[in-house]
Design a protein that fits this description.
Distance between the termini of chain A: 41 Å
Helix content of chain A: 10-25%
Largest interface: A-B, 69 and 65 residues
Number of helices of chain A: 4
Order of helices and strands of chain A: HHHEEEEEHEEEEEEE
CATH architecture of the largest domain in chain A: Ribbon
Number of strands of chain A: 12
CATH topology of the largest domain in chain A: Umud Fragment, subunit A
Radius of gyration of chain A: 18 Å
Largest sheet of chain A: 9 strands, mixed
CATH class of the largest domain in chain A: Mainly Beta
Oligomer: homodimer
Chain lengths: 219, 219
DNA sequence: CTTGACAGTGAACAAGTTTTCATAGAACAT
DNA sequence: ATGTTCTATGAAAACTTGTTCACTGTCAAG
């Protein structure tokens, strides 16, 4: 993976933030205005670079149409695992935090979202007693569909050391993803539970936020 | 809330599905092609109707740019049903607030109706729809197995007026059971979601404890 | 010094997209 | 009968947006 320049990263982040806030992508001129470019071509070049570096997919001929390509780490050296709680975007409540959406598939736009609103979801007191520092994540995408965790579900993440085969909330490139943890010796892989996705994702650096112990579905 | 026509509902669902799959909205021409309209103006009119009825917000002049307005669940049925609180088999319950980003990511583009919307509406704007007296029930038995509610699961019951097709916690012979509510004219039936069980249970008097809105499963 | 990659300006073009205008049949209530 | 609303056609206008072209400046490597 080729490295992104500072401005390219900023533009990519802005695009993510924009789609997170508005649910639609910014136009080239939106980006131009945001970064005070005098020409649309400046943005155009950066978008080409982002696509060439494989982190953004443009849809030819379509306006405000892009896809985020998940950034994959390529190496196969020994994996270093860190354990970490939910991100700063989680708002603390009485006992359970809701850390925003989790990407089980491609896009995760929760990072740069500024507006957080409260919502109420009942959680049984028994599960709360079990794990006082548990938090909830809303699942987005379909990469865990074979594990019966679907888009829109809410998973309860509890801290702990994951075993082989556990479903974990892991930080990859600053984005939280829900994957099954596969341990092979000292190497660790993440596996999407969807036949249409690549089998194993090798990771050199891995941050585990917790283990998915329960899934809550709206009926 | 004004009611949507069949085609309006179909178009709205298509738009939701499109943005869920592609992360960007369809153009008017995309919709036109999908529904085999001969003119873009047919779509245009439907979009205007959707906006007038308050379920869709268009961004003027911008391409592929919309916002979904969470739909309010309305039901005007006149069925006479008694409501009652939870019985002894209800699990002690504590309602916990979540905070999540509403605008973040693409909210609720999976299944059409407003089941998911309940989770997404800000607390300030939905106080009347909140469930301050929700409670949890541990499911025993397999009568709802076809609805993917299995023995050992926990369902969250919220008070409210059940619609046709809702899964309700009903009192039958002094015992709480979980069944799907079927309304046919003025008659009300209860239906077990298991092929091995009798199709419809006719009821002359019915006590509803609440509507099953969520199911929580241990992974 | 030269070369090439990178980043940008400024203008213009081509395509995509929304929006408006004119028209018309079907359903329906008055 | 008559008007209204909804739905739709067909065409065109108006606007948005992506894309291309020509040109300039910076900076580091060779």
């Amino acid at each position: 993976m080729e490295e992104l320049t500072k401005k390219q990263r900023a533009i990519l982040d802005y695009m993510k933030a924009h789609v997170a806030e508005h649910t639609y992508w910014p136009s080239i001129r939106d980006i131009q205005a945001k970064f005070r470019f005098a020409s649309t071509n400046a943005v155009f070049g950066h978008l080409q670079a982002l696509e060439r570096k494989g982190v953004l997919q443009r849809i030819p001929g379509a306006a405000r149409a892009y896809k985020i390509v998940p950034e994959v780490l390529g190496d196969t050296s020994e994996t270093v695992i860190r354990y970490e709680g939910p991100g700063d975007d989680a708002i603390a409540f009485e006992s359970v935090k809701f850390a925003g959406s989790i990407a089980a598939g491609f896009p995760d736009y929760t990072e740069s979202s500024g507006v957080l609103d409260a919502m109420q979801v009942p959680i049984s007191a028994s599960s709360r007693r079990r794990a006082p520092e548990a938090f909830a994540l809303r699942v987005r995408g379909d990469s865990m569909i074979d594990a019966e965790i679907n888009d829109g579900d809410t998973v309860i993440i509890e801290p702990g050391t994951p075993k082989h085969g556990d479903i974990v909330a892991a930080l990859i490139d600053g984005e939280t993803t829900l994957k099954r943890l596969i341990k092979q010796g000292s190497k660790v892989y993440l596996k999407a539970e969807n036949q249409n996705y690549p089998d194993l994702i090798p990771t050199t650096s891995l941050t585990i936020q917790g283990i998915a112990k329960s899934v809550m579905k709206r009926i």
